[in-house]
Structure formats: structure tokens, C-alpha cells
Amino acid sequence: MARIFVLLFFTWGAGLSQTPAQQQAFEQGEKALAEGRYADAETAYQTLKQSSPGMAEVHARLGLIYFQQKKFVQAVPELRQAMKLKPTLPNTDILLAMSLSELDHFSEALPGLEKGFRKSSDPVLKRMSGLELERAYTGLRRDTKAVEVAMDLAKAYPDDPEVLYHGAKLFGNFAYLNLKRLGEVAPESVWRHLAAGEANESQGDYDIAIMEYKAVLTSDPSRAGIHYRLGKSLLARAAKLSERAEGAQEAAREFEQELLLDATNANAAYELGEINRKSEQFAKARGYFEAAVKYDAKFEEAEIGLGRTLLLLEKPDLALPHLRNAVSLNPNNEVTYYQLSQVYRAMGNADEQRKALGEFQRLRNRKTNQPPAREVTPQEIDPGAH
């Protein structure tokens, strides 16, 4: 940040009447500041301050130097004096606001931080002001405003790790506070049970998640989406306890209930297709997979599941277009290419089989597979497959 601020404030030293000694101290201070030698820069500007206590630029420079050293207590009076001597100095009020924010003087800092974030044309100054503004609003417990700033920062700096970190932390805290409030005002509501179910499911506490989802259905039996979430939690718990077969059948009943409430739930249809495929009920699996791709034309995992099921039904010609669709949706899934190689093998197309196997091996070596784009059971290569 030092070099950016040097550019921002560099013109402060231009056009000023200086003695040779002052000019030398100024040049030494500028060089040290540009190189990040803050102690040397501070010494040079302290010399200038002694000889020219009424020069606003010197106080501003010292404020900047102290800011860069995180000496915010020393930075504030220098920046205040600079503004008193010359209120028009550019960006001084913003730097003062950031220093005040670092000292937890949030209310006093807000106007300058808002100006820096909303009106500054310099992306670095805007970013720093935004991060401090986010912190200030949080410190003042104005959580909604803090979230608004975090969202604006994420739009302006979508690939900035620091912005992403602070935003995630803030969003998580905001969600926690809202859920806590939900538990206080409506502890037995559908929404509280639903939130608790989702939270525990995400943490792997499937027994509690299952209990909460069942509580939702007790209050509202016709609520769409809950049987699906319950089925997913049952599958996950069964996998965790190595009871896949028993859990799959219990989950299947929930997915079936979901489809009775909402026949267009592609995820529930897919999970039923996968359960039936794994239990070698291929005709039933085909029907469910076809329903999944019917209601969601961009469902990669369902296209793979349907393709491999049609192959097991000895219909490789029908399987081929579905696997090609899966490749178009995601060219980095090794499972798709493996299944393609098996389809081409069944069709007697050795050249295409070799190409598909080559791509499969390339992806496997590069480990480029990504998790599914949605919360469904991922397609995997069967154990023992050749």
C-alpha cells in the first residue's frame, strides 16, 4: 500500500518554497517512503516539521508514514493538523477516517470512509475505505449496512482474497445472528426447524438434521423440498455408518414422497434413478433418470446416470447422446469419458474408444474432476471397473 499512497500524495511536495536543506530532507523522506523504509521517512519529515511547523503537507506526510507503520495514535493528530492548515489537501480526510476506524472511533470515521468508498476513483483507496467501512459498521452493530458494503466490495473486487475472507466472515456472522433471532421469536416455527435442519446437515450432524426435517413435515406435511432434504440426510448418515443398503431404501421412500408433492423435482428423480441403478433395477432407474433430464436439461450427473443405465440395458446407441451432452456440460469429468469408452466399446468403435480412454486417463492424472454443481450423489466409476 505504501507505493500507492506515495502516488496519491506525491503532489503535496510540489511547488512549495523550500531551502536546500528542506529540499534534501524532502527528497530523502520521499525516497525512504517509496522504498518502505518508514523509520527513515519519519526522521526526514520530523526534521521538516521542526523547520516548517505550519506546512500542511509535512503533517499530512507524517500522518501517512504513521499510518503505514500502524501507529494510528500518532497518525490522527498529524492528519488533523494537516486538514486544519489546508482543508483542501486531497485524500487527507479519508486517511484520517481510516486511522480513526483502526482506533475503533467508528462514528467519527464513518463520513470519511463513506466518501472514500463511494466517491473515490482510485481502486486501492476505494478498496481500503470499503474494508474499513465494513469494519466500522460491524463495530457499531449496524449489521445490515455492513452486509451491504461487503456485497458491494465483492462486486467491485470479486477475486480479492482479503475482500472474500472478510465478506465470508461477515455473512456467516450475519446469518448466525438472524438464526439466533429466529430461534428467539419463533422457536417452534417451520422456519426455525428448517434452518436447524440445513445447518446440521451442512455440519454432518445427520441425526439432528433428520429430526429437524421431520419436525418441519409434522407442522407442514405438504411443504415441497423437505422430503428430498430428509432423503439426502438419510443417505449421508447411512454412508457414514456403512449402512448404505438400508439407508438407500429409507431414503428412496422420502424421494418418492417428494415426487408425489412435486413431480418436477429433478434432484429427487435423479437420486431414485441412482438408487435403482445401484440395486440393478435398470428399467426403473432409466425412468427416473429420464424424468430428471426432462425437467432439467442441464443436469450433468443425470445425463451420465441415464447414459450408463442405457448401456447396462444394452442400448449403447441411445446412451451415446446423453454422455455427449454430459461432456458439453462439463468437459472435465473423468467419469463421463470412462462411460463413453464403454459405449464405444459396445458399439465396436475402437478408435473412439481409445480417444475416450485417453481423455479419461489425462483427466485422472491431472485430477481435474470437480464436485457436482448441485447437492446430489455424484457419479463415480464402479469399483472393479476395467
Write the layout of secondary structure elements.
Blueprint: H1 2-9, H2 20-34, H3 38-51, H4 56-68, H5 72-85, H6 92-102, H7 106-119, H8 123-139, H9 143-156, H10 161-185, H11 190-202, H12 206-219, H13 226-240, H14 244-261, H15 266-278, H16 282-295, H17 300-312, H18 316-329, H19 334-347, H20 350-366
Helix pairs in contact: 2-3, 3-4, 4-5, 4-6, 5-6, 6-7, 6-8, 7-8, 8-9, 9-10, 11-12, 12-13, 13-14, 14-15, 15-16, 15-17, 16-17, 17-18, 17-19, 18-19, 19-20
For this structure, the CATH topology of the domain at 1-90 is Serine Threonine Protein Phosphatase 5, Tetratricopeptide repeat
Overall geometry comes to elongated
CATH superfamily of the domain at 1-90: Tetratricopeptide repeat domain
> What can be said about the biggest beta sheet?
none
Mean pLDDT over the residues: 89
Radius of gyration over C-alpha positions, nearest whole angstrom:
31 Å
In DSSP terms (H or I, runs of 4 or more residues), the helix count works out at 20
Count of beta strands: 0
How would you describe the oligomerization state of the chains in this entry?
Answer: single chain
Architecture per CATH nomenclature, i.e. the level-2 architecture of the domain at 1-90: Alpha Horseshoe
Low-confidence parts, pLDDT < 50 over ≥5 residues? 6-15
Class from secondary-structure proportions:
mainly alpha
- Percent strand equals under 5%
Helix-strand topology string: HHHHHHHHHHHHHHHHHHHH
Helix content estimate:
over 70%
Distance between the termini: 56 Å
What is the CATH level 1 assignment of the domain at 1-90? Mainly Alpha
